[in-house]
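3.2 Worked example (two chains)
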Amino acid sequence: MKASELRGKDVAALEKEVTDLLKAHFGLRMQKATQQLTNHTVLGKTRRDIARAKTILNEKKKGAA
């Protein structure tokens, strides 16, 4: 997901996006542990998406405060 897409969302939507990404990352880690994951680059992409979403969420929270 691109940062420009995330910047268009409000705080509640960003929090939901972060939780969804965390759940997806957990599922991918379980697939990797059971050797069902074939494309390991997805783990890095989701980790970067989580970081990107958390960064923008913190920016919005600090800007509102």
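3.2.1 Second chain
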Amino acid sequence: MSSAPTPQRSGLAVVGGGKIGEALVSGLVRRPGAAEGIVVVERSPERAAELVSRHGVRSLDLAGAAAACRVLLIAVKPQDVDALLADLAPHVDTGHLVVSVAAGVPTARVEAALPAGVPVVRVMPNTPALVDEGMSVLSAGAHAGAADLDEAEALLSAVGQVRRVPERQQDAVTALSGSGPAYFFYLVEAMVDAGILLGLPRALAADLIVQTALGAATMLRDSGEHPVQLREAVTSPGGTTIAAIRELERHGVRAALIAAIEAARDRSVELGR
């Protein structure tokens, strides 16, 4: 390990070519000229070749990526983090910025595995980064300063919105927005099935629900109104919507959703231990 920052390092290495790693790469390379500054580190040669072919990035081993890149984005599964950090530690110094998107893994665990003083930022992104509509939430570790947070935020803002929170809130963030796309996909799946049950062709049902979901999300974002107000505007006395809402409440959908998000939070805490 070198003891001083290395000025010639630049660019980003995405360590881990799984779903979230590729989602971030896919979004980042859409910026003009960005692909030249991005490398991927992937254990599987076949997967590495696939990422290189698909996104126009370079592939390096871990030591090569650390030598070339200032920002190292750790995108492996939580259960693989400790082994990865042990391999990475000899190649990292305080001139790097380590950004971890491993769900549930606290910055203290990352810092303990790396040389003293290496700045670490913890991030919870989500897969809509694939379409530049991601939600990324970041927290600073013990050695990450304002400039490190700014650098991480600038990186992630290329693929969507970014918020900053104290690290103690990250498990809740993981449960809400990190896992959140799956909840919406699950609801859309159920609604499409309902459309088919009611006699609509699958493709038409899917088109109706996807556009409805997109329109509803845009209204939530742009109207400034509370979700209750928007729902009530659709809910006429004695009409179809209130009949549907009654059934949702009767089946405990609200309570089930809250319980599901709590379960995701608890699992995030477990993964970080």
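3.3 Remarks
The first strand starts at residue 12 and ends at 15.
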